[in-house]
Amino acid sequence: MTSDELHSLLDSWLLHLRAERKSPNTLKAYGQGVRRFLLWAEGEGIEPALTRSVVNAWIASLIDGGAEGETIAGWQGAVRRFSAWLAAEGELATDQLLGLKRPTVDVKVVPELTDEQIRALLATCTHKNFHDRRDEAIIRFMVETMVRIGEVVSMDKDEVDLSTGTAVVRRGKGGKGRRVPFGPQTSRALDRYLRLRRAHRLADAPNLWLGDRGKTLGYEGAYATLTRRAARAGLPDDFTPHWLRHTGAGRWLGAGGSEGGLMAVGGWARREMIDRYTRATSEKRAADESRRLNLGDL
């Protein structure tokens, strides 16, 4: 199968995934992974055959080129899923990537913010204007509920219930919705934002989060806003809003929360995802637990 044919079928696959209600970020990541494979094959002057030998050669080149471990695994997973779909649709006789293992690569440890860093981030939102009230509410909500930034910007205003301290995430990853709880501090921040929101020119819009110049707040706008806040707070240059999700997970376990509760609130389906998201502070939690157990007291 030629590269042009695979590019065309990629569009069909992404259409299929949209019908399965995959998130925009998932579609973007899967599409990027397959396109990277096709681009590599074109650069090598070889047919982009979806075989183990060719895909493994591509993975080896990514490792040699210094790509991040999770990026490599994600792109390989996209190509494996694409191959499986092609076989299921009858475009390929067989799925030769069936059973191909996830590459063993170094996993990047995503930092978790300390309480002092969280306070510094919130300290950039101390004014009573619309933007500060909105951004404080977003930061508190993301840290406490561990909601992904893509899920946050997709929320509608009627999905937040201040009286019960809960919000419904209807557009979760993979189309899986869930209900998330939040406490009094986050409730107060959301209430302050919602009261100012009433004066916005798009106050009647269903979207929970509103932006500038008569627009709603989308993914790119929220991402840029939070990274600017982080810079002002003196956080590391490589900060991304996803750190807030990792931070929330680490704080949950550090406070003694259960793994089952964390999975339910965070929207994780697999236990191993907890280890991935809380790896940065796992040693500190283990040391704290050891001190509480005091097993050396004989």
Automatic annotation (TrEMBL):
Q: Which InterPro entries match?
A: CB, DNA_brk_join_enz, Integrase-like_cat_sf, Integrase_catalytic, Integrase_recombinase_N, Integrase_SAM-like_N, Tyrosine_recombinase_XerCD
Q: Which Gene3D superfamilies match?
A: 1.10.150.130, Intergrase catalytic core (1.10.443.10)
Q: What sequence ranges are listed for the domain Core-binding (CB)?
A: 4-87
Domain (Tyr recombinase) ranges: 108-291
Which Pfam families does this chain map to? Answer: Phage_int_SAM_1, Phage_integrase
Q: Does the keyword field hold DNA-binding?
A: yes
Q: Which GO terms describe its molecular function?
A: DNA binding
Recite the UniProt keywords alphabetically.
DNA integration, DNA recombination, DNA-binding
Specify whether DNA-binding is a keyword of the entry. Answer: yes
Q: Signal peptide span per the entry?
A: none
Which GO BP terms, alphabetically? DNA integration; DNA recombination
Protein name according to UniProt: Integrase
| Organism, scientific name | Actinomadura rubrisoli
